[in-house]
Structure formats: C-alpha cells, structure tokens
Amino acid sequence: MPFPLTRPLRLATSSLVLLLCALGAHAQNAPPPAAAHTPATRPAGSDPADGTTTPPGAAAASAPTGADAALLSRDARRIYELSRDKLVQIRTLLRNANTQASIGSGFFVSADGLIVTNFHVASQLALEPERYRGVYVTMEGQEGEVELLAFDVQRDLAVLRAKGRTAAAPVLGFRPADEALAQGERIYSLGNPLDIGFAVTEGTYNGLVKRSFYPRIFFGGTLNPGMSGGPAVDDAGRVLGVNVAKRLDGEQVSFLIPAEFAQALVQRAANAQPITQAAHGEMTRQLMEHQQVLTDRFLKAPFREQRHGNYRVPVPDDALARCWGSGRDPAFPGLNLERTQCRADSDVVAGDFNTGAVRLGYEAYNAPTLGAARFARMFSQSFANEQLQTRGNRHQTAAECSERFVDPGSLPLRAVVCMSAYRKLPGLYNMTILAASTNQPTQGILGRLDVQGIAFDNGMKLASHYLNAFRWEAAP
After folding, report:
1. Could you tell me the end-to-end alpha-carbon distance of the chain, in angstroms, rounded to an integer?
2. CB 404 within 8 A of CB 415
3. Which run of H or of E encompasses 289?
4. Which partner from 25, 99, 215, 467 sits 20 to 30 angstroms from 123, CA to CA?
5. How sure is the predictor about 476, in pLDDT bands with cuts at 50, 70 and 90?
6. E strand or H helix that includes residue 443
7. What are the angstrom distances between the C-alpha of 26 and each of 134, 138, 397?
C-alpha cells in the first residue's frame, strides 16, 4: 500500500561511500568535507611507472627493464610536447578583490577557442556570475578571459570560450568512438596539479567502473587536486577522457569522463550564447532528469531480499549499489546486532555540494535474553537516535516529517518520512525514510533509506516501493 504523506507546507519554498575527491574547483582553498567513513588521502607511493607492483617472490624478469622504463619516459615526454600548447589552467577570481578563488585544468577543442573542463571547476561561473569571473592561463603564461557556454551536471562537464583571441587556438582532437580502448592500454593524464605547473601522469585503461550510475573510465594512474578538467589522451595524443576524480582510500584509483560526453557538450555549446545570469534553472532541469532516471532504475529493478531470521529486508540489485555488512557487535552483549550499508554511485556535483545520492542501511536486532520491556526501550532509542536535518542551511530547508504505522502486508511497520527542500532548486528534495518492525517482542528490523535531489512524487513512489518490500516469513 502507498505510504500517505501530506505535502509539507513550507517545502514549497524554492530552493565523497562513493569516495570521490574533488580535484578542482574548491580543492585549493581548503580540503572538502570528508564523507562518512572516508579514509584520509594517502601520499604518493613508489610503484613503478605503469601503476603495478611486483608481488613478493615474483621472478626478477617480471620487473620492467631499464630499456622499458626509458621507452615509457620517452612516450610521456612526446605526449607532453604534443599537448603542452593545448592545455590551460582555469582560474576563478573574485570580481571585487580580483583574487583567486579556485583552480582547475582544461584544454582547447576548437580553433575559435572552445575549452573543455569539469562543471565543478566552472560551477561558480554558472551559479554566481555576479561574484566571480573566469580566466585561462596557458603554459607560457598567456592569460585571457573565459565565458561559460554550456554545462552537463550529470557528467560533471563544462565548455568555456576564450574571449578576445586573435589567433587560432591549437586543438586537441578526440579519439574516434569506433576505436575501442583495450584493457591495459597505456594512457596519459595531463593537468596542473596543486598549482605547481603542468604535468603528465602515465597510467592504464582498466575498463569502465562497475556499478557507476553514469559511465566512468577506471584510470590506473594518479590524479591530484588541480588536474580536474584536464585531458587524458592515448599514445597518439587523442583525447579519450576528461580527468574528474580519485578514490581517497586507495592508490592510483582514478576516474575519467568518457570523451563522447565531452564531444556532445562541445557540439551543444558551439552556437550557444554565454551564460551571464545565475543558471540555477538549467541546473534544476538537469537534476530533474537525473532524479527521473534514478527513480526509473530503482523501480524497474526489484529489490533483493536479505535474511535476518524470519525477517526479509530489501537491498538494491547488485547492479545498482554496493552493500557491506557486519556481524555481531561485541559492544552490545546479550544482543545479536547485524548491520548492512548500501550505496549507489549516483552522486552529482551541484556547485559547492553534491546531490543525487541513494543510501540504504539496516540493523537487525535479536535479544531473547533481554526481555520485552528492555528490548522495547533499546529498540525505541535506536530509532530515536537516527540523525535528521532538523535545522535548515543556505542550501536546504529544515526537514519536515510525517509518522505513520503501516501494514504493507506481512510485516507491520512504524514508518517516518522526512523531506527537506532545496532553496534554489525548486521541486527537488532530500528524503529520508525510517522503518521499524513492530511484530516481535525481542526481535526487530530498523531500516533507513536516504535519497538526495528527488522530486516529491517520485519520492513517494520510492517510499512505497521500499516499505512494501519488507516481509516477515513465519516458520512453517
């Protein structure tokens, strides 16, 4: 049965574990807030140039020879020389103070000065053009103004135009789409890491990232802050991807946006007028498309069932999300407590914050020795301890919640649905659903679903889909 929720009155107000490290726009001012359970970034290691390590006991012949290393080095130097005049640094400056607010990288893709970079590098130009202006700086130190023509929030891409150029810009070409990359093929990432100078990083193509909501290339190489928006090229110097992010809990696990999406945005931008007013409307339109795709995928893919005694709880299809579990918690003697956490790799950048994430979590309780009263007290406290956005901020309103006792069929539930509206993205909300079983005196299931950037009607569809998936399967 659908979960009833009256549309909250004040919600009409207009409005990283995908462990990703933002590599551009705000990385040079201060480190971005760490995602929950996000390990710290590790320093660069001393692995060989191809990003592999030699296992202990491996034959010495498996290590690269001096000749191989010299060849790889020559290839990198050649790529660097082929690309250096096509690379630019993108700087965002405060208009009043003319001081640098953020940096990233980019590259010329047309003779009339079109530049590809990441949306998160150019987001201040899109959302606060009255406060910020953008410039590009070449390797030789030539500087010029840029204007924003188009952006793709879902893929984290933007196209700029260099203003006032009198000479044709040198151009990086794209690798043809029909020339598929081979697993292990060497590729080269270029950009301006940490604002210390242009650099080239060697690595390997490792296919597309599994379970990524939008296609991402798994780059077996190192990316660093400031390289966002720079190109990744093949051995012929042709662009195959755009630098975007890296994992914080691993080494040489980085990500590229496939070049086909950059090419499509360049075509869209070729005849576009510059964006001179805050583009929250266009960003809202693109985020609406994102949440519709997200909703359709979750509604079309039936939940898998996870067993906890007689309880059957819903977990996402393996193609949609990664799930991690933990067994008995020693901190709770006398209580058998198991946890599961799932997360979809569906986050998108919306300026200086992320949205679009989907997270699910469960706690399964079994405490036959506690007694019904003690268990009820503990179970209720666990439910009450769930954190919600009780206060608004500059991006969102405070959450408004509705509580019901519902019985979708085989398992009665205490359910709470909370919605928080985006102030500058009208029609989009963050939604939290809490569900607790009420059918057993010393057993219980506590579930939570968080969806960011969802339309109200789609949020209600997901809520009903989620709550209807809980089941109690009595012993025969």
Report:
1. 26
2. yes
3. helix 280-300
4. 215
5. low
6. strand 443-455
7. 14, 20, 24
